[in-house]
Amino acid sequence: MKRKFLVIGGLILLSLLPVRHLFFPGYFPMDDNTQIMRLYQLAGCLKDGQFPCRLIPLLGNGYSFPLFNFYSPFVYYLGVFLKLFNLSYVFIAKLLFGLSFLLSALSFWWLVKKVFKLGFYSSLTATAFYLWAPYRAVDIYVRGDLAESWIFVFLPLIFGILYQLANKKTIKTKTLIVYNLTIAAFLLTHTVSLITLFLPFLVWLIFLFIASTNKARFFKRLLLLLPSVGLSAFYLLPAILEKNLVTTETMFTGYFNFANHFVSLKQLFFSRFWGYGGSNVLDNDTMSFQLGWPMWWFVALALTFTISQTLLYFKRQNLKPSSLKIGIWNLIVNCKLKIENYPLVILALYLISIFLTHAKSYYIWQALPFLSYLQFPWRFLLPAVFFQALIAGLVINKISASAIKKWLALAAVASAIILNFSYFRPEAWWPNFNDKSFFAKTYFKKQQQAIINDYLPKTVKQIPEVGQFKKPQAIAGKANIKQWQLRSNYWQFITETSDNTKILVPVFDFPTWQAVVDGKPVPHQIDPQYGFIVIGNINEGKHIIRGYFINTPIRTTANAVSILALITLLGLSIKPSVKPKTRG
Question: Is the pLDDT assigned to residue 269 strictly greater than 50?
Fold first, then answer.
């Protein structure tokens, strides 16, 4: 028990050291500087009674924006939960970044120590490499990608869960429930990373299926994970099926075309450059894409060992290297792969991930159109960081001499920290920044203007400036408009109009807004320039005009699927255990 607490304490220290700056008062600049705004808007969305949250009122230059209909919401829901403890939004944003490191350390340790059964020093090395890879610093201090930083928490868990399903003889019902909840959270964390991890997970699943000694059991267990997909359906189905409602072309054309953002071998392996800029065309990048020293050195050792052992095997069997393809094919066809061969699969997945960051993989990106949504090939550094950490642990684990293993592991951990320590810090620090600073007029206006092109409704041809339309206005006839209110799923104003007045409501039309005049639903039009809601044929007199955001059939179906999946899991959790019958 004492050793267990020491291990946990060591992991906490190892994981909190890279995010040490987050403990200080204040905040820091980053590329995606909208994390606090997203938290604030989601909290307001839930207060309005919109659940699940889809529209938020203040982004989109303040004219309503369907952010959470398309952007993965899990981390932000977690942040709003933390708000119940009366924490500031600035503190919550920093806490979420910090938790991504702490929880990823614990989840990775579970994978290498409990699932793969590596030794203590092997697991320590692997976990340190996972935490101190330079790309982890890029995610927080340069890009500020909160959602992707949390993928590092779930990646080891999902990898381990699939391994357990294929390899473990018995799995309890309650364990399956935890697995489903974990996978659902993973699916709701960062959609882009799901695309990045699709190929690695597909290869991993194929290997586990072929290597499984009980394929039927493994397949049935995979089916028992379907509730996890159902739980995340409320977000995934609209995000996929309603993407035609918003402008997505700008997200992977021009600057965002993947062809502009391949990285070189020098950037991956040898360059020690560090910057706080962006990904640019060719070699003009002002941010780092290095895999990290000494992380990839252990991959080189593993690769050298694997090649030498393969050549030695061919020599002993009097086989020519040209017969290697035939040998691998026979191995697969005859299902002779064993679960113990997983280190070779991990090495292969690492090489695939690295290859996909390089321009030589261009033809693969062209052949698989869904990859274009990734925008940046260097996103495959995410799985690469994961696999190279695993490989380092496996290399240490291969050493039989305990003394050599111990000192090599400690030297590797120390090197990882020393060589990458300077990367884990922000470019600047705003010591006096707090929630009051966030709500300051100038800063808040910049937040409203951010990410507007990502999910802009297609009806918008010209984006109006922040504050250009402060309230509804008559575009035909006359109207005296008062008491304008805009919420996430609701808007209202009172007006006195002349006959046959037409009023422009400064809210982007997005399916489905229902306009109501004096309690009666009325059809509305769409402004051809700004994509605003337009209500016409308003009679003379005083009127209360409201708008309600209602679900489309797709969203209603998606919500129902998630509720059904939740009921299914709740039913499994309270299902009484069946006792074996005894003979009287």
Answer: yes
Within 8 A by CB and 6+ apart from 46, the residues are 53, 80
Rounded Cα distance, 503 and 491, in Å: 14
| Phi, then psi, of 334 in degrees rounded to 5 | -85, 5
60 pLDDT above the threshold of 80: yes
**DSSP-derived 3-state class of residue 83:** helix
| Mean predicted confidence (pLDDT) in 438-456 | 84
pLDDT value of position 449: 83
Chain segment 468-487, per-residue pLDDT in tens = 999 999 999 999 999 999 99
Phi first, then psi: give them for residue 463, nearest 5 degrees: -85, 120
Residue 335: phi, psi to the nearest 5? Answer: 55, 45
- Distance in angstroms (rounded) separating the CA atoms of residues 406 and 308: 25
Give me the residue label for tokens 């394929």.
215
**Given the structure tokens 């970044």, which residue do they identify?**
97
Structure tokens at 300: 């080189």
3-state SS, one letter per residue, for 254-319: HHHCHHHCCCCHHHHHHCCCCCECCCCCCCCCCECCCCCCCHHHHHHHHHHHHHHHHHHHHHHCCC
* Average pLDDT estimate for 369-380: 92
Mean pLDDT of 296-306: 92
Residue 302 near residue 347, CB atoms below 8 Å: yes
The secondary element (H helix, E strand) that includes residue 507 is strand 501-508
Q: The pTM is what? A: 0.93
Q: Are 525 and 538 a contacting pair, CB within 8 Å?
A: no
Report the alpha-carbon distance of residue 332 to residue 351 in Å, rounded. Answer: 20
